[in-house]
Specification:
Blueprint: E1 3-7, E2 10-14, E3 27-30, E4 35-38, E5 43-46, E6 51-54, E7 60-64, E8 69-72, E9 74-83, E10 89-99, E11 105-108, E12 113-114, E13 122-126, E14 131-136, E15 140-141, H1 144-147, E16 148-155, E17 177-179, E18 184-188, E19 198-207, E20 213-222, E21 240-243
Parallel strand pairs: 4-10, 12-20
Antiparallel strand pairs: 1-2, 3-6, 5-8, 7-9, 9-10, 11-14, 13-18, 14-15, 16-19, 16-21, 17-18, 19-20
Length: about 260
């Protein structure tokens, strides 16, 4: 409220002080603390509420992006601003970091991949033949042939059984496993005639776009015969392995020259 004081013939407008004789307090806004949230479907929902002090009550507060928004993967800066009933303004900034720390989930098909006929031919194999899905919490479904890498493949039969007594059916071949890099391999379609079928175990790792990794293994079989097609080959101990991490499993048969 303004009062007019007569000074001669001049009228001067005077702004009276408040009741305490002090100017109005300044307006302050405090942003929420920084948040770190796990990514889901490409981002994360962040909820927050800034606090306002000082000024003259009758506040207007807003944030960009507003609370409840989806923040994308990475560190994001938001701003909040406030004004009071006499037009004072204040603003602050806060950070929302969305991280991806979880490995993708691999689902392997319940039934082994089957190779037939046992004619000693090398057949192409890729991970999508035995993997049902790869799903990442942040990035969604992933193409296993694009993000998967075969580390090793094992066989429960020797590479070449020509040194085994009464061995038949194997074909006496070498290099029954060829790893092509990435998600591809070539496996020989054969098994020992007096065995219970051949089982290849393929070990692999998938990596999501954030670098998180998950590992799994799937099986490829060459059944002994198809007279009972519902009877799978029986997986025995590893006898031959190509790749890394083979441990004590032989990397070559004594009958095969070292490449």
């Amino acid at each position: 409220m303004k009062a007019f004081v007569m000074l001669g013939v001049l009228a001067v407008a005077v702004s009276p002080p408040d009741c305490a004789g002090d100017p109005p307090p300044p307006l302050y806004i405090d942003c929420p603390a920084s948040q770190t949230l796990e990514c889901e479907n490409g981002g994360a929902v962040a909820s927050f509420s800034p606090s306002v002090t000082g000024g003259v009550p009758g506040y207007s507060v807003s944030c960009q992006p507003p609370s409840g928004s989806v923040f994308p993967l990475g560190c994001n800066t938001g701003t909040c601003s406030a004004s009071d009933s006499i037009g004072q303004d204040a603003s602050c900034a806060h950070q929302v970091c969305v991280v991806d720390t979880l490995a993708p989930i691999i689902t392997v098909k319940p039934e082994p991949v089957s190779l037939w006929a046992p004619n000693h031919e090398m057949l192409d194999f890729k991970l999508s033949h035995c993997v049902e899905s790869v799903v990442d919490r942040c990035h969604g479904p992933l193409d296993v042939d694009a993000v998967g890498v075969i580390s090793r493949a094992e066989s429960d039969e020797v590479e070449d059984d020509s040194l085994v007594d009464d061995a038949v059916g194997d074909g006496h071949t070498c290099r029954d496993i060829e790893l092509g890099g990435g998600s591809a391999a070539r496996l020989r379609s054969e098994r020992q005639g007096r065995g219970n079928g051949r089982v290849y175990t393929v070990h692999f790792t998938v990596t999501d776009p954030s670098g998180n990794r998950a590992s799994a293994a799937c099986q490829v079989q060459v059944v002994h015969d198809q007279s009972a097609p519902s009877d799978p080959a029986v997986r025995d101990a590893c006898q031959y392995c190509e790749g890394t991490g083979c441990g004590t499993c032989p990397s070559a048969s004594p009958a095969c020259p070292v490449p």
